[in-house]
Amino acid sequence: MKTIISIILLAGPATVMQAQTYTKDVDVTVELRPELRATSRLDISPVTLSRSFPASSLRYNGTAISMPVTPMIGTLAPVAGDPIYPPGDYAGYLVAGYYPWADFGVSAGYRLVNTRSTRLEAWTQLNRNRYKEHTGTAADSPRARVATTDFDLGLDFSSRSRYGTMTAATSLYMSHFNYPSDRLDPSTQNIYRYRLGAGWHSTLDETASGWSLEGNLDRFAFGKACFPVGFENSTDSPRALHQTTGNIKASGQLMFNDAFGMGLTVGYTGSNLSNRYLYMPGMKDFHAIGSYSPGVISVGASFRFNASKFAGHIGPVIDIATGDHNSTRTGARGVLDWNISRYLRFFTTVESGTHLNTLGDLYEINRYAAPLASARPSFLDGDVKAGISAGPFKGFSITARGGFSSASDWALPTLSDGVSTFATSDITTAYYSVELRYDRGRRFSARAMLEGAVNNDIDHAYYRWSDRARQVLDVSVSWLPFEELAIEGGFELRRGRKICTLSSMQENTELPVTTTYGFMSLGRVMCGRLGITYNIDETVAVWGRLERIGQGRYLLAGAMPGQRMHGLFGITFRF
């Protein structure tokens, strides 16, 4: 079997193994785009985010890849909206939900400036989540308590003039949670994250000539340096990891006419990790080995076209590594869309790029990983897919997709000697999806999607699924029996979920360390969801939502216990 685990990341990107030498390096950045919370769309009921790991769509902008990840803790999310739209009747909102006897969420926002051209919005949210579940899928596995409290505070700004659109956002995130096992000391953690982003776009029309400039700053810090129980720490004064990541990007597009044009994007992303911890497998020993500052210069060009039935853009991307990262990568990105007829459409996409794997990236994938874990950069060699969409015919439509992806040194949750961390691997797989939709006006709609990876063994997995699922089925239904009442339901199935395990052994100091690779099942996700919203009037609504209905024991992607049935019941005010 091809050896694909290139690094044990319980302690950092410089893991040393006597049996092998690893040299590959690659880089992803999380790009902070200003997120605007719209206070005029509060007729949409808030939801608790499910504890699943759906395929997230990569949004390309010419430099690093922004990769949204579903949070692992159910939260009450603020309502997001468009950057610019006419003023609404209400400037503020307050949404509060509670689920006996442990979970609650509060989300609030107020539009301080509210004109047709300028918006300034302040928002905040507080979520608490507590439960007690089994730490494994076996019948005799012990139970552990899980408790998290998350707090967000932010400010969003957007202004439009005849010269262009300017956006800016800043936010502060703090979290307190416990590690639901006895493997880390201390057993609780604090998170602090500050983000700042700003951008200027001369036009928001992708078919017109224009330019844009964006900059982002992300500061992520652990509050405590937690070490696995039974592992030695040879560092005199261990310090918690923190990392600062910055990004700047300039883009320009020149359209020769209404149908053809060229685009160019140049960006730089760099980060500084305060420290790395070196872990010697088999010795159970940690010590600090200094800071780590990788970076990447990304240059992307594209040819753009917009004919009557054929539209899209495609071009090369070059990523040049800088700092403590030595790797230059080339790839491509693009979208091609062919409207064969009114009811038939063919499309294809290609994606590639470098990922820095910042602490913030890894935390969003698995907050329960040992806070010593970091990862060297990864690279998406290529993700090429094609699909065809037919419909709608009397409300029915169907879309089928298929593709192939290849990623190098891709960081996924791993159990290293029993401790939740990250390890990198070269993974490839073919994948598919079939989606069926039915819409009957605004009163009723239904959707069913089946997705799957052809294989999910040691060398094969779908890089977007951190739980290495083999197949995913998601069904959702939305019904509006009358104007004041909205009902939604659904069903989710994720099968073949598992996590890679690494076990290191050394019989004596004269023999090399041997590493055994394996898998541990995370359990099947098979559950329903139900949500009901009743609008008492234009300003007040009551709602309730249940998740994971009928769910059995299962583990999160980091092998920590997952919550079964949970939800929120609450009320929404607009003022």
Detailed description of the structure:
By secondary structure, this protein is mostly beta strands. Helix content is 1%, strand content 58%. The chain is built from 1 helix and 30 strands. The chain has one helix spanning 359-365; strands spanning 7-8, 92-99, 103-114, 118-134, 143-161, 164-178, 184-185, 188-201, 210-222, 227-228, 232-233, 242-255, 260-273, 277-279, 285-288, 294-306, 310-323, 328-341, 344-355, 378-393, 396-416, 419-440, 444-453, 471-482, 485-495, 498-505, 514-521, 525-535, 540-549, 566-574. The protein has a 22-stranded antiparallel barrel. It has a 3-stranded mixed β-sheet with strand order 11-15-14, with no helix packed on it. Strand 5 (143-161) and strand 6 (164-178) form a beta hairpin. The longest helix has 7 residues, at 359-365. It is globular.
Task: Summarize it.
The chain is mainly beta and 575 residues long. It has one helix and 30 strands.
